Every structure is written in C-alpha cells, then in structure tokens.
Amino acid sequence: PWLMGNDAKMIVRGSISSNYLAIADWLPAAGQDSSNHDPGHYRLPDNVEAKVHVACRELVYEDMDIKNLQGELLVSGFGIVFNRLTAEMFRGSMTANGRLFQENESQISLDGIFDLEGIDIKQLFDNTNNFGQDYIMAVNLAGTVSGQVKVNSFWNDDLTPDFDKLFAIADISIVEGELN
Q1: Is 41 helix (H, G, I), strand (E, B) or coil?
Q2: Conformational region of residue 31, where left means phi above 0, alpha means psi within -120 to 50, and beta covers everything else
Q3: Per-residue pLDDT averaged across 120-124, rounded?
Q4: What integer pLDDT is reported at residue 40 of this predicted model?
Q5: CA of 90: how far to CAs of 2, 82, 153, in Å?
Q6: Cα distance between residue 131 and residue 153, in whole Å
Q7: Among 129, 176, 120, CA closest to 155
Q8: pLDDT per residue over 97-113, tens digit each?
Q9: Residue 66 pLDDT more than 80?
Q10: What does the CA dihedral 119, 125, 131, 137 come to, rounded to 10 degrees?
Q11: What's the CA gap between 93 and 165, in Å, rounded?
C-alpha cells in the first residue's frame, strides 16, 4: 500500500520465454513433507496482477514432454487464469482456457476447457497413469483423439492428481481407435 495507496491495483505486463523448463524443479522435492512447503511462496499480493505472455519450447514433467507451449496468463494472488494456451503433446496438439488456483495449503484446483487435436490416446493414458483407474488401460488402446474436454480437478501440491475428485465431460472422436 505504501507504493500505490490503499485501494490501488498494480498491473504488471510482460513476457516469459524459455527453451526448457522442468516442472519438478518448482515443486517440493520427492519425499519432502509438503506441509513444510510454503504455498504462499509463489503467491502475489491481492492488489497485484501480472498479465504475461508465456512461450516455452520444451516443458517436462515426469515422462510428459510438452513442446511449443505458449499463451496468455493472468497471475494474481487468487491463482492463474490461462487463455489460448497452446502446446504440442502426445503426438498431437492442445489449446486450453481455464484457471489454476490454490484451494487450500495442500490442494490445487484446475478447471478448464481443453481442445484436443490428434492426441495419441495410448500416450495420454500412459502419461496420466490411466487416470487412476484400471478398467481401460493404455496397453489396450490405440488411435488418436480429437475434440473438447471440460475438466474440474484437484491436485496435491506436488502435482499428484486426486482421481476421486476428477470430473470431466468429453465430446470427442477417436480415429483408428482400438480396444484390445
């Protein structure tokens, strides 16, 4: 408040670009007690917003390799809103609009609309650990998926999904699909 007055809002505009980003470098170390991880570490004050264009040639998380990620982020003390976030992944492409925010000290919420084009369904299921279920498995699938998926999901602060709290509505088509 000393810089802008009590009710003023600061808006920062900029861009971030990187050739390589490893998500694991930004998370608590494996085996680390996440209750000691300060969730406010990455939080902006409530009266500050950052409007950022992001471009990253390669983003890696565990076995997931995402190429040419780019889009617009609105970062605030309440979370991150992403618009027209595009990427190449699973031998196809994705465009996403949504929001990511800290639900509580140990849980992150992700809500979004994801437009998929030519995504390798076997790679998708393999990289998401079969979405936490064992009824339809990656080893039994083939083909590419295109369409739109609306998602409401919850994740631990180490980006482990809570599959019991994953809700999705999908309007998709699968080309050359196989279920073995």
Answers
A1: helix
A2: left
A3: 94
A4: 47
A5: 48, 20, 20
A6: 11
A7: 129
A8: 999 887 777 788 899 99
A9: yes
A10: 140
A11: 25
